[in-house]
Amino acid sequence: MTEKLKLHTPNITDENVTKIAALFPHCVIEGKIDFELLKQ
Predict the structure, then answer these.
(1) d(CA 24, CA 22)
(2) 13, 20, 28, 39: most buried, per Cβ within 10 A?
């Protein structure tokens, strides 16, 4: 029995944006991180 390989890479960026949004919801606007707000 052979295993099929996954031919795509996981989208780590989306996961990280979700994590940042959970911690700092005011820094994520329309799915994008406002780094200036995040720095503050």
Answers:
(1) 6
(2) 28
Question: Structure tokens of 32?
Answer: 């994008």
CA distance 2 to 12: 27
User: Can you read off the two tokens belonging to residue 13?
Assistant: 């960026």
Tell me the per-residue pLDDT of 25-36, one tens digit each, with 9 for 90 and over.
999 888 889 999
User: Structure pTM?
Assistant: 0.64
Report the SS3 class of residue 33: strand
Cα separation, 20 vs 26, whole angstroms: 10
